[in-house]
Amino acid sequence: MSGKNRDTAAGPAQESEPGSGRLVGYARVPGDEADAPQRRLELLGDAGCARVYTDEAAGRDAARPGLRGCLESLRPGDTLVVAGLDQLGRTQRELIATVAEVRRRGAGLRSLREELDTASPGGDAIFRVFDGLAELGRAAISAGTSDGLAAARARGKRLGRPPALTQEQLREVRELLLRPENTVAGIARQLGVSRSTIYKYLPGFIDTEAPGRAATAHLAPYQARPGRRVLVIDDLADLRGPTAGTVELPLRLFWSMPDHRFDLDDRDMRLWYYQTVLREASRAEDLSTYLDAATLVSLWPDLYLPKGVRRAWQERHPSLHAEVSA
């Protein structure tokens, strides 16, 4: 049942008032319980859901195509119905990110076990509680990261990943770039690294040798959200953004919460960060500055993206579609 949605013959569907939006259900079904799928479907059907999306429960890092499809289907005024909040996330951060996505799409949330319903009087306070939890989580991450880095530095520990290119290799790259017959792509292949790695380590040198070169992107004929077309980078190698540490997004890309910082060392926050930039980017610099090509490819199958965004990027860059198929 993983990644599927089903129409249920729900008698109580009249709970949804005309014009008030649809009731859309989601269930994460344990694969080792034979009758669990039917029980979950009946429970959501009794709540008035005409459509229910499901995923089989799996490991923590497993993709959840059913949840992705469910979120992508939500329209303003719809209500997402679940048996319990644990259905929406296997970790607290994943739960908070999913609830934030529901709110961003203008939909409501109803959890049957906890008797939470954002459509009830004062229901918006539920979203504010999740906003507060997200704020506390980011503050704790920031404080813990700062304390850990300070302690590591005090011990004389070298922080960060080992460099992809040694000083000797960097000297070799500079010498090769001075020869007109060499290209960045050719040098990258020779050294067994990506083009983005060379741009990352020698940005000023390459800009001097190739003045005016800048990342380019185009607007695809699909919508990231109503009124905004999808912006796609022309060359994945131009995505040379950060791969670790804390990054703060500008207000034009992330405005839904006071804190615009994302800890890229946390996988759930990294997914949320990439989903946000891919949806909201309006200029090529947004993509080249904040996204990294290798990270994008590795995260692509697990990103919750509007159908227009996913289709536009996969049409331009077939390697992303191949990653999903694999």
Account of the 3D structure:
This protein has 326 residues and is of the alpha/beta class. The protein has helices at residues 36-46, 65-73, 92-104, 124-154, 167-177, 184-191, 195-201, 203-209, 267-280, 284-290, 293-299, 307-316, 318-325, and strands spanning 4-7, 23-29, 51-56, 79-82, 108-111, 116-117, 217-225, 228-233, 246-248, 261-263. The strands form three sheets. The protein has a six-stranded mixed beta sheet with strand order 1-3-2-4-5-6, sandwiched between helices. Strand 2 (23-29), helix 1 and strand 3 (51-56) form a beta-alpha-beta unit. Helix 3 crosses helix 4 (124-154), helix 6 crosses helix 7 (195-201) and helix 12 (307-316) crosses helix 13 (318-325). The radius of gyration is 23 Å and the shape is elongated. The two termini are 19 Å apart.
Strand content: 5-15%
Number of helical stretches of at least 4 residues: 13
Order of helices and strands: EEHEHEHEEHHHHHEEEEHHHHH
Could you name the ranges where pLDDT drops below 50 across 5 or more consecutive residues?
8-19, 207-212
Sum this structure up briefly.
The chain has 13 helices and ten strands. It is α/β, with parallel strands linked by helices and 326 residues long. The chain has helices spanning 36-46, 65-73, 92-104, 124-154, 167-177, 184-191, 195-201, 203-209, 267-280, 284-290, 293-299, 307-316, 318-325; strands at residues 4-7, 23-29, 51-56, 79-82, 108-111, 116-117, 217-225, 228-233, 246-248, 261-263.
